């Protein structure tokens, strides 16, 4: 019975003791100590930052300025923590005296149904990778690679797969790792949020595995990623006019929600440049574009987020951005400004420029 009440009792003890669950570890390993990673400045129109009206939720102007203009990313360590007697359920990972939330506060007070037992494994889910496809694709899979390197089984609470998850898993060669409620003798937790050289190397290995999983010829033309209906609403009101101009330059339009991962990766694997509105769709370019290609992000003025720059540059892409202007029903990107930014970005990539 006490095991079934663990989600409730763990929350109570966590509030009383006011500590992090990592403080309860019986073993800590420093996987990488962390070190600064140099980053090239972004390609952007002069004064673009002045058009921002609001930053992405959960971030600040200072954070975004560093992500946008910082000459290096001062990355901290990657650490692994072994905790004993850990219950993993759909809501989180529970120690007798602490917890790590995975899905907000949606877990039940009491675990219903069977509880399996196992010896050891590594938790590869975080609260954000459980909520956003982009974070799962970019962050969750590199955690799975770390678990594999440590000789551990990767696990996460069972949940419905993202639309593109099964296909990308097949391409990369990382099997599904969902488990029902399980009590582990030892469960490893990772702190792996910093993009240090160790994490970059795992990200590159996933990219190489994905490309190795493709069959047949890859695309070789620039791509515009069109946002579909599965994410948060971000409406580029003059998108049709932009697409008409880009079509004359040889761009193709890719709407990921209407394609399989193999189709998405094949289209992007040879593209010299990809353009898209900021959001989870950009993660497809991060994982699929060839090294040396350019990524141009059209930023909504009311939710600017430059996190992609750090990841793009770390795997050899050249990052650029524009900031759209507020408009009725969404935002508008000046076309001449976009064309100038494309020209500037392509001048700094290894790709042949389309005709402007």
Number of helices: 10
- Strand proportion, as a percent range, falls in 15-25%
Structural class: alpha/beta
Distance between the termini: 69 Å
Summary of the model, kept short:
Helices cover 30% and strands 24% of the residues. It is of the alpha/beta class.
3D architecture notes:
The protein has two domains: 6-28 and 77-210, no CATH class; 37-74 and 217-356, Rossmann fold (3-Layer(aba) Sandwich), CATH 3.40.50. 30% of the residues lie in helices and 24% in strands. The chain has ten helices and 17 strands. It has helices spanning 6-17, 61-69, 133-149, 165-172, 197-212, 239-247, 261-268, 282-288, 307-314, 335-346, and strands at 27-32, 36-38, 72-74, 78-88, 92-95, 98-101, 116-123, 154-157, 178-179, 182-191, 223-225, 252-254, 273-277, 294-299, 318-323, 325-327, 330-332. Strand 5 and strand 6 (98-101) form a beta hairpin. The protein is elongated, with a radius of gyration of 22 Å. The termini are far apart.
Indicate the topology.
Elements: H1 6-17, E1 27-32, E2 36-38, H2 61-69, E3 72-74, E4 78-88, E5 92-95, E6 98-101, E7 116-123, H3 133-149, E8 154-157, H4 165-172, E9 178-179, E10 182-191, H5 197-212, E11 223-225, H6 239-247, E12 252-254, H7 261-268, E13 273-277, H8 282-288, E14 294-299, H9 307-314, E15 318-323, E16 325-327, E17 330-332, H10 335-346
Parallel strand pairs: 7-8, 7-10, 8-9, 11-12, 11-13, 13-14, 14-15
Antiparallel strand pairs: 1-4, 2-3, 4-5, 4-10, 5-6, 16-17
Helix pairs in contact: 3-5, 3-8, 7-8
């Amino acid at each position: 019975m006490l095991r079934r009440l663990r989600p409730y009792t763990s929350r109570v003890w966590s509030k009383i003791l006011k500590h992090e669950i990592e403080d309860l570890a019986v073993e800590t390993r420093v996987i990488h100590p962390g070190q600064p990673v140099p980053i090239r400045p972004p390609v952007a129109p002069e004064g673009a930052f002045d058009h921002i009206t609001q930053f992405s939720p959960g971030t600040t102007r200072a954070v975004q300025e560093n992500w946008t203009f910082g000459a290096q990313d001062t990355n901290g360590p990657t650490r692994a923590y072994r905790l004993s007697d850990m219950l993993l359920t759909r809501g989180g990972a529970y120690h007798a005296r602490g917890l790590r939330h995975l899905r907000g506060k949606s877990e039940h007070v009491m675990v219903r149904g069977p509880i399996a037992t196992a010896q050891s494994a590594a938790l590869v889910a975080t609260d954000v990778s459980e909520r956003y496809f982009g974070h799962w694709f970019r962050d969750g899979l590199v955690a799975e690679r770390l678990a594999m390197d440590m000789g551990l089984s990767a696990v996460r609470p069972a949940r419905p797969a993202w639309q593109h998850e099964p296909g990308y898993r097949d391409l990369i060669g990382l099997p599904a790792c969902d488990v029902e409620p399980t009590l582990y003798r030892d469960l490893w937790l990772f702190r792996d949020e910093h993009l240090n050289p160790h994490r970059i190397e795992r990200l590159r290995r996933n990219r190489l595995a994905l490309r190795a999983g493709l069959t047949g010829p890859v695309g070789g033309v620039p791509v515009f990623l069109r946002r579909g209906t599965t994410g948060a609403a971000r409406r580029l009101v003059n998108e049709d006019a932009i697409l008409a101009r880009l079509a004359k330059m040889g761009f193709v339009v890719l709407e990921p929600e209407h394609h399989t991962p193999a189709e998405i990766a094949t289209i992007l694997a040879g593209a010299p440049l990809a353009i898209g509105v900021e959001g989870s769709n950009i993660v497809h370019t991060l994982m699929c574009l060839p090294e040396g290609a350019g990524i141009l992000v059209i930023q909504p003025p009311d939710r600017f987020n430059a996190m992609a720059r750090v990841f793009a540059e770390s795997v050899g892409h050249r990052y650029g951005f524009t900031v759209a202007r507020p408009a009725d029903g969404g935002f508008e990107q000046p076309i001449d400004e976009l064309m100038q930014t494309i020209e500037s970005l392509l001048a700094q990539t290894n790709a042949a420029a389309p005709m402007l």
